[in-house]
Amino acid sequence: KFLDKILRPVFDDKCKDTTIIDGASLITELSKYNKKGLLKSTTLFCTFDICNLYTMLPQEETLDILMTFLHTHGYRKVKGISIDTIKKLASIILKDNVFAYGKKIYKQTTGGAMGSSLTLTLANIFMAKWQKNIVEEQTKTGEYYGRYIDDIFMTWNRSEEELIKLLDDLNTWHPNIKLDYKIGNSLPFLDVQLTNKNGILSTSVYHKPSAEPYVTPFISDHPRHVFSNIIKTSIERAIRYSSTFEAFNYERRYIKLMLLYNELFSYPSTFIENELHKYFSEYISKSPFLSLIDDEQKYFLLRKEILGQPTPRQTQVAMSAALADIDNDPLDDDERQQPDTYKIKSEKKSQTVTKHSLLILRMKNVSKHANEIYIEYTIMHLKIHQQCTQNKLSATATVVQHKMN
């Protein structure tokens, strides 16, 4: 988490133009695309996802791409830690993942640990490098390209055959990166359904067919504001995503039915109505909620106001990006223009406890947090070494006993 905390703001800042934060941010970007007159009746939508991205990351190449990424964007240090030290720490987290199965200990040789926050950031930085050429091509033709981790959305105004050829080529760019794609004029992406209706962008909430319509039970031991926030979040998403009054009313009914008929844990009808009144009264204080349901004009005024506000996730990412250049050591312009002077060295050292002890001694000028990580890693290495030794002794003893018998 320490490394992710200092690296993610850099990614959030430097790659924001091609990053999809959530469904609302995608709708905003496609609305801009539409206003430019680029959305035609023949415009195709394409989505594709990278198969098993986290577990297929090439470890050494990912570390090299991390170093190139930091140097390209002008960093000598990030939060007082040199980028060479960052590479060593990232290498420990990425490469030294072990698990026991049966009576054997295995080490992960490709990809990173699932659930690790740093693996997510490294995967994002790796994909930023992988997508560079296609982003440049989409930018030249005025088309949209956006990525949410391993899910990608793009627009296309040439023939479908050309698009399929491009996607097939993308599958050959890297041996570890394979993608599955869908092409059409109406496609789901994340939790939003996007449709091109003869050159008009239409959006609505998308529910996966396999998803069960369950929410936190009302009788559960949670603070009351948790239930209020579930209703508020659901209705606000409906407003943001529903480009038509009809789509909003459909989703509003879906939300109410989901809350009312949640088996034995349904929400009281009066509680739902009170929370809806409370939410809408913040925007339409002089009008009752029921008038909103029947008034399309008021709905669009309300939607315009809400779309002008960032989502909580968008605010979180913006705050993260704002920290990217605080307490960092940027490169001079001359150094940034001469990337060849920076060489990424892959150090091959013996896997011994002595090596890790020497590394700790060399860390005396590095921040306390980084030093603590090395110390914890050394202890972990000793424990693994001890476990392996015990396993070998146990196996040897078993063989000897078997021969004696």
UniProtKB/TrEMBL annotation:
InterPro entries: HTH_animal, RT_dom. This is Reverse transcriptase domain-containing protein. Residues 1-205 form the Reverse transcriptase domain. Residues 327-349 are annotated as: Disordered. Pfam families: HTH_animal. Residues 336-349 have a biased composition (Basic and acidic residues).
